[in-house]
Design goal:
The chain has about 100 residues and is mostly helical. It has three helices and no strands. Helices cover about 80% and strands about 0% of the residues.
């Protein structure tokens, strides 16, 4: 069963890295939104394409509270929850299989 445990541990590690990377992409998008970026810049376009499908539904439900877009904060909190709940559960399950 150690092979299944190692595979599950590897899956947990990859998921943890993906969630961390996406958190940083959300942070970069929020920081870029504070300035007037060139909309034709490839980095700005990538950040928008990578984050808008997640941010837009939350933004639509929340609306603008006091003129502040809170959707990046909500998404980051959800990502942290997934890291601590889902990834930690995968690590613990993998440890039990060893």
């Amino acid at each position: 069963m150690f092979v299944a445990g190692n595979a599950l541990q590897g899956l947990a590690r990859v998921l943890e890295m993906v969630l961390s990377l996406y958190t940083w992409i959300i942070i970069a998008r929020a920081l870029v939104s504070w300035v007037s970026p060139d909309p034709w810049n490839p980095i700005v376009q990538f950040l928008e394409r990578a984050t808008e499908p997640v941010l837009e539904p939350i933004r639509r439900r929340l609306g603008w509270q006091m003129g502040i877009d809170l959707s990046p904060l909500i998404v980051i909190l959800i990502l942290y929850f997934l890291q601590y709940a889902l990834v930690q559960s995968l690590y613990e399950t993998a440890a039990q299989l060893h």
